[in-house]
Design a protein that fits this description.
about 210 residues, alpha+beta, Aminopeptidase, 5 helices
Amino acid sequence: MEATHRHPVSVKWITIASRVTSPAVTAHSDPHPIADSVRLALPAEAAAIAAIQRRSWPERLPEPVSEQLLGQADLEQMAELWEQAISRPPQARYRVLVAIGNEQLVGFATTTPSPDTDAHPQTDGAIDEFVIDRPAQRQGHGSRLLNACADTLRADGFTHARWWLVSTDDITRRFLQEAGWAPDGAHREIGTEDGSHRIKQIRLHTDITES
């Protein structure tokens, strides 16, 4: 099956549709960055988010796919789409979070209602985009961002979270499993609009209700 998300370039699994309307539980809302924190994204940060997303493709995707994306993507257009997603989001309960380190934006994530056909619309949320810039990895930013995503989904009324992961991404799978996520048996293939490349994904999930 193919993912059908909004995206800055013509590859369906690059998703940026996100919403910011109310404070998350642990993501602070102060617009002035503080060291090692997570907060809701500002429209002015769209260009930085787009740049981090673009840099992440060679790490996250097979080489032919990342090369195709890099050849197609216009960074200015991506930034415009991110700005729209932050300032004029498509619907309720879509959020963009950013990770801050040393007063710099070092990563971002989006939380959404799960678009899966087997999802409960009120209780099943999803983490869609999730990227920590390479120079800032292994410094705790990923864990802080993941925790903030869970808190944001919980504040929006979700009780479970889902995450579609490239099947060969053992590093992210290990990171999620150490945080309490587990495969739920679902899998799919997603592809470019021209059908030239396909990627296998597995789905992980977790209970985000407070114990």
